[in-house]
Amino acid sequence: MDGDRPHGTTVSAFMSLSMDPPMTAVALDRQSEVLGLIEGTRRFAINVLGTAQSSLAVAFARKGRAKFDGVEWAEHLGVPRLPDVSIWIACTVDAVVDGGDHKIVTGSVDEVEHRESNPLTYHRRVFGTHAPTIHDVDNLKAFHVEVSADISEADLDELLRLQDYGYVSGGSAFISVARVRESTTDVEGVAAMVDYAQSKGWVDEDGEALQAHVVRQK
């Protein structure tokens, strides 16, 4: 914050630093105006965007002071908070460390708020979200998708479709045969798996997805 005016930027590098006490760290360009404000106020917040907020990530990556124009926000604990983010973390600066052409700001966590929503990720210049882990592609009888314990069937379906992994139907995950092929070099084995799955009725109507068990982590 610069008085009553909020400032922000999109960052590609931040991390959990410590659990006890809770601390986080974020890397900012040495020329960043936001870095100067953080060093002056000794306060900052991290807004972890949700999957539907990629436009905000793009907007805040631009240069200039008008990033908050037309953006809904609220001040809490002296730092900006965006609505509908996956996680909001308010911090007090602990240290600022040199890191090449960036500076690493470490912060003590003052408050955290979390929503049951999928976080926005960015990889190879493409926005996405966290994808479930596919296991045992070489053993169809043990074929399963591992997800967090609290994810709903609707959210899992959204995750699978967003990453072109497949979809959820009737409590089971259906994984794209193309994705299975990407997970193993055994081309003949995949063909045999598909034939076996078809004989057991473990494929969808189009024959393009294999049924997998959903295993929830505890």
Automatic annotation (TrEMBL):
It comes from the Eukaryota. One of its GO terms (molecular function) is FMN binding. Coiled coil: none annotated. InterPro entries: Flavin_Rdtase-like_dom, NADH-dep_flavin_reductase, Split_barrel_FMN-bd. Pfam families: Flavin_Reduct. Gene3D superfamilies: Electron Transport, Fmn-binding Protein, Chain A (2.30.110.10). The keyword Metal-binding does not apply. The keyword Chloroplast does not apply. Keywords: Oxidoreductase. Residues 1-129 form the Flavin reductase like domain. PANTHER family: FLAVIN REDUCTASE, FMN REDUCTASE (NADH) RUTF. This is Flavin reductase like domain-containing protein.
